[in-house]
Structures are given as C-alpha cells and as structure tokens.
Amino acid sequence: MKMPENAQEKKEVKAEQLPAASQAVQEVSVTKTTRPLSRPGISSGFSINSFLNKEDKVETTEDVVIKSDNLPQNHFTDTDLQMEWKIMLKQLQVKNNFVFNAVKTFKLVKADEHKIKVLFPSDSAKVEFDKISGEFFNHFKRKIQNHIIEVEYVRDVENLKIEVVTKRKMFEKFIEKNPLLKDLDDLMKFDLT
After folding, report:
1. DSSP conformational letter for 69
2. Cα three-residue angle 111-112-118, rounded to 5 degrees
3. Which residue, among 186, 156, 158, has the nearest Cα to 171 in the 3D structure?
4. Are 106 and 128 in contact, with CB atoms under 8 Å apart?
5. What distance in Å separates the CA atoms of residue 130 and residue 124, rounded to the nearest whole number?
C-alpha cells in the first residue's frame, strides 16, 4: 500500500509551490503616472469651424507660353511616325493590354510638315488614347527633334471600324473577283459557316 503514500507526498509538494507563487505576485509594485499615456492630440486637418467660416477665394490662373523659336524643328516622315507608333503598340500590348485593345485601330497620319492627324473610331477609345498620348508624343518629338508638332484629332468611324470577316464573307469577295466560283459553290455546296 505504498501507492497512496506517494500520492499524498505529491499533493504536499504541490501545496508548497502554490504559496510561493502567490508571494511573488504580492511583491510586484504598481507605478502611477501623472500624465496620460496616450499621444497628444493630433489635428486631422479638417475643421468644421474653418469650413463654415471659409472665405471665397478668387483663383487666378496663369497662362504658360512656351516659345518655340529656340526649339528644334527637324523634318520627319510618315514612315518615322508609323515606326514609332508600331513600337508603342508593341510596348502597350505587353504593359497594358486593355489600352492596347482600345487604341490599336487608331491611325496616325502626317498631315502637314508640322502636323499629325490622329484618326480614332470612338470617344471611349479616345479617352484611353489620351492616357498614353502625352507619353507617346513627347517621346516622338524628342526622337525626331521637332518640338512644334501639332496634333489634330478626327473621328473616323467608317474607315477604322473593325469588321469581323467570316469564311462566307471572304468567299463572297472572291466571287466578286471571279464569278465562276459561284457556279462551283452551287455544284459542290461548300460549307462556309
């Protein structure tokens, strides 16, 4: 019957450890502060009083005039413009596919010595083009060293509309060129769906 004695000894050991722990808790002292521990009040920048007492200020705008007398005015060709536009489209296809799909149908044409005409299909596509146009035209002006280029926007829905070409439509265009294909289609009954 030694087992119950061992159990009583373990209980006595546990009872001895509990008072020691309670004594350690009693020895901790509490320190008090005279100031609050939070941060001092930080203004959010908006004040209702300042909003209510706001005075109407007259905003003045300054027109910035850039003199183009000293800027380079080198000649550029339509080929230069088309090459740079293709490079920009390739970069856009990798960088921002959404803008690429919106502007890939745009046509840029050299209209005059210092004028570029931008033909666009829709206003929503033009909004996407406006996001990249500054970057493109600044790069183009620096590359060809002609800083007096003017840009003219023209909406051209008919020529820039993307048409879905089916096999049937392609075959009808071939029939216009060679009417014998129509007879062949009647004879063979091609499946052009």
Report:
1. S
2. 30
3. 186
4. no
5. 10
50-90 pLDDT tens trace: 777 777 666 666 666 666 567 778 888 888 889 999 999 99
Q: Please, which residues have CB within 8 angstroms of residue 123's CB and are 6 or more apart in sequence?
A: 155
> Can you tell me the distance from the alpha carbon of 159 to that of 164, in angstroms, rounded to the nearest whole number?
14
DSSP state of 57: P
Give the Å distances, CA to CA, from 31 to 34, 44, 110. Answer: 10, 33, 81
Residue 21: both structure tokens together: 């722990």
What whole-number distance in Å separates Cα of residue 149 and Cα of residue 72?
Answer: 11
Torsion of CA 27, 33, 38, 39, to 10 degrees: -130
| 3-state per-residue secondary structure call for 70-98 | CCCECCCCHHHHHHHHHHHHHHHHHHCHH
Q: Helix (H, G, I), strand (E, B), or coil: what is residue 140?
A: helix
Q: How far apart are CA 2 and CA 136, in angstroms?
A: 95
155-184 pLDDT per residue, tens = 887 765 666 678 888 888 899 999 999 999
| Amino acid letter for position 46 | F
Extract the tokens encoding 190: 């091609």
**Strand (E) or helix (H) holding 2:** helix 2-27
Look up residue 118 and give its two tokens.
């931008």
Non-local CB neighbours of 76 within 8 Å, separated by 6+ positions: 110, 144, 146
